[in-house]
Amino acid sequence: MSTITAEARLAARAVSRAHSSVRLRRYLNTAGTLVLSLVLIVWTIAPIYNMVLISLEPEGDVFTDHIWPRVPSVESFWGVLTQGHWYLEHFWRQFANSLYIGAMVTFFALLFGSLTSFAIGRMRLRHGWLVSNAALLTYVIPASFLAIPFYRIMQNYGLGNNPWSVISALVAFATPYAIFVFQEYGRSIPIEVDESARIDGASPPQIYLRIYLPLMAPALVAVGTYALLLAWNEYLYQFLLLSSKSSMTVPVALAQFLSSDQSPWNYMMATAIIYALPPVAIYYAFRRRMTAGLTVGGVKG
Amino acid sequence: MDRASVADVARPAIRWRTLSRSLRGGLKGGEYAWAVAFVVPYVAVFLAFVAYPVVYGLWMGSEASLYRELFADPIYQSTVVNTVLYLALGVNVKMFLALLLSGFFMRPGWWMKALLLIFVLPWAVPQISTFISIHWMLNGEWGFLNNVLYTLFHVEGPHWLNDRWMALGAVIVSHIWKWTPFWTLILLAGRMAIPLEIRDTAKVDGATGVRGFVYITFPLLANLYLICTLLSTIFLLGDFNAVNFVSGGGPANTTHVLATLGIRNAFEIAQPRLGVAAVMSALPLVIPLVIVLMRKLRTAEVQL
Known about the structure:
The complex is a heterodimer of chains A (301) and B (304).
Chain A: H1 2-55, H2 75-81, H3 91-122, H4 128-139, H5 147-157, H6 163-186, H7 192-199, H8 204-215, H9 217-233, H10 236-241, H11 250-259, H12 265-285, H13 287-294
Helix pairs in contact in A: 1-12, 2-12, 3-4, 3-6, 3-9, 4-6, 6-9, 7-8, 9-13, 11-12
Chain B: H1 2-24, H2 29-60, H3 64-72, H4 74-104, H5 110-119, H6 121-124, H7 127-137, H8 144-153, H9 164-192, H10 196-204, H11 209-237, H12 241-247, H13 258-268, H14 272-280, H15 283-298
């Protein structure tokens, strides 16, 4: 009897020791997660907090040494929205320019990309691989490396200070990604769908419009957001090709602030925040699609 | 004789038909015309806005004397050092952090999901906004960083952007800050794509923690990691914004990289050919990268 109880007691003690070591490990695990999370949050938020902090300073109070807004004021946001500073006199015009360029780039990248991938992937155009390789090559050439010759060419065409010069450059750089994603995504749609429509007498444009585009809707959304954000966030080409105050876009205007001697930092940061709101909203709204589309073939490698 | 002449007459026609069929790839006449018409817009865009600038650029930078002038320029010499450092540290530190963090974000629970939403913020906010903010943050007198150092520790911080190495470091850290979330998400998707059975079997066989990572996860992720590293190298080589807005190439043109030096030569000192030459000097690195990437990407798949 006593040996049995002793054994049971030993076993029970071993179990409780194992339990406590598990508990300890779980405790350490949670603590580690918390510490790492805290570090990540501070690291991630700092530059964004700095942006908000300065934008909430009343005018002239930017050169201070405190790390939280002492007298928060939305004066600078109001100044941007009402174009109340001489630097901001064309703000809404510039905002509209950004929007226009973004919309045009999205439209043409989707149109050219879907037409090309339809002809190559669905209609099996001979030597279509040449076109897809050209597209792939464009995708892996750094755009900034072509900026100087591109600028010269646009000057020769007489397209200096014209939004269409920017649009054509950005379409040229966004479409390859579109072709790539569309072709890969199109493989999941059986080719028999097209063939049966063909037998029923549908012409290629009808198949493209009625069958191909509706089935490709998820890919169109992913590539559309990609192209829109590419155009909205792009700086170098817009800076080089758009020079007048009424034709430039928000990022170019923002950078002009920086180069002046007396930068009104609170207005600048308020502008930067307002400019950042649309893309942030789009990122969070289309989060799933974006990350899926942006893996550019990586995932299955 | 009669027969032979018939065959001789008929042969060119047959040859012509097979030739045109092989060109069209089995498409009927009308359909072939449509297919060509569908490809024409993109081909036109490619020729006018990619191929033409490439050829024009090659022509602009084709004189050997340009390179003699360029290589003798001390600004160019420091630019090459900066570019190599920027590539080596920017790409590898970022990718390694992304690899570790993607494992961290595999943990279950609502807290990790919420944290991930905050964590992707640098990627979502436009580059110009954040880089301008970082530029002001690092201001020696009124910057947020030095204010924090003074308030918390009573330490007078240095003028971060007035020293070449600190300014270059600031650029690299800004790049890592901006792009780690994006590559973390991609590697996270790669980890999620590993079938659950493999992970479970590995766990049963005792491959957990570090051993599970070394023997199971990393071999399965290695190809993706390589593609991401190569892509990130080429993206970073073409990166203009981080340098231009965080350090502005300063102090005294000591923190330029090839992409910003090209623009500076072309537009600030108005020597476009010298600018093209600066960019072209990266070709010995770009060409092998492009060839390897084209091969890797062609066989890859997209998940939506």
